[in-house]
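Dissemination and training. As part of the outreach component of the grant, students in the summer workshop were shown how a complex can be specified as a set of sequence lines and then modelled as a single object. The example used during the hands-on session is reproduced here so that future cohorts can follow it. Participants entered these lines:
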Amino acid sequence: MDTMLSAGARSESNIEVHKYYSGAVPLVCFLALVLQAFLHKYGRFAELVDLPLLVTIYFGVSRRNPVSGMFLGAAIGIAQDALSHDNPIGMYGIAKTCVGYVASSVGARIDTEHPISRFGLIFILFHFHQVVLSITERALLAHNMPMFTLRLLLDSVVTAGVGVVLFALLDRLRRRQ
Amino acid sequence: MSDTIISRHRPLSLLAALILAQVLLLAFQIKRENNVRLVRYWTVQTLTPVERAGTWSFSRIGGLWSSYIGLRNARTENARLQKELDELRMRNRELESQAAEGQRLASLLNFRNAHPEASMLAAEVIGASADPTSHTLFINRGERDHVRRNLAVITPEGIVGKIVEVFPTSSQVLLINDRDSGVGALFAGTRTHGVVKGSGDPNPRMDYIVNDEKVQAGDKILTSGEDHIFPKDLPIGKVESAKAATPFQLISIAPAARLDRLEDVLVLLTQQELTPKKTEEAPPQNTPNPAAANSQPATAPHAHN
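and obtained this result:
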């Protein structure tokens, strides 16, 4: 907890921008999409976790650059739309663009290395993602997509839990400076 | 100044641009009811109220402007007389306009009364296509008035076109002289079948008539009902000129309806044939063509060849 508090109090310039081995970012994004599509075959458990969202948040927070964060989110979201058979391309694109932007902006202001802060951040961004998705669906597709349900709450808790473990694994891909 | 704001908020500007690009991408993919693309739906929904307001404003401003000009040039010594004269002229113009409108509406009403079995809807033309090569117009009836795609649009004089797009309060009509239009047709006299196609010119053409067929200027052309849009035996127009060509004759048609001066039209809500039950101008008993008889009584079925 001390680490979290001290991290939050640090100035923006003191926050470390992490670098990754070349090819690690596209490879991880690709694997997240493939794994998400692959796990979907095996029932509802896979639907609890949104791996592309976790990857968007992780790289957004770590690289701390809103522009690259939003472009990465857009690319992952559009690819996710392309993989779904009935989503018009752009639905997830818009939601993940916003998530990428917010994650990078948050990452540039506070340190998010602590597991608890990561859990909280993923939990909040999961619901932010859902709200943007719901607004887009309502405005453009005239579908009444819910913004919040108990199922979404469960999804967000599971996604945040998986995210904490996944983030720790992804930390190993960082280039040492 | 604006450059400074954009560069200061570069990430936010990029975010807005990226989201806008994706919203546009979505709008190009999504189709709303009646198979209308969302981007087209937005555009028409934005433009039709302006067109409607434009039609209304022009008629009002036109009246105000003509009265202003008329009064401004009046001489002081005969101002009272000139004003009176102008007022009388204006009143006369108004009455003439009202009489013409009344005549037009009476003609629509008579036609409607003559065919009580057919469900039809009177509509006002509120705008036309912005593309000079496209012969389409917009009417003030839409989805809320139960208008659907492929319904026939007619006037008592003859057919006008068909509904191609439907919006909540307006619809787009493809005129019979548009390049994309095709109407099943036949000669009233010989009952020879063909297809009336738009050529992009004001006059449509009758296609697929072999050179052996005798066609003369003035021959009447009616709908054949084969297109399942227009009921059978509605007047399309008259032959204006016919020339032998390979493989079929080149037949130009003068449309029966004044396609360039349409103000009020009727939308046929069914595709059943029109048979007269009570007409204000009783057609001859041997007239097999009731719709045509309404505008061209007695002579409609007789051809010149």
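Chain A touches chain B at residues 66-67, 70-71, 74, 78, 88-91, 93-94, 97-98, 101, 105, 136, 140-142 (CB under 8 Å). Students were then asked to discuss how this feature might be tested experimentally.
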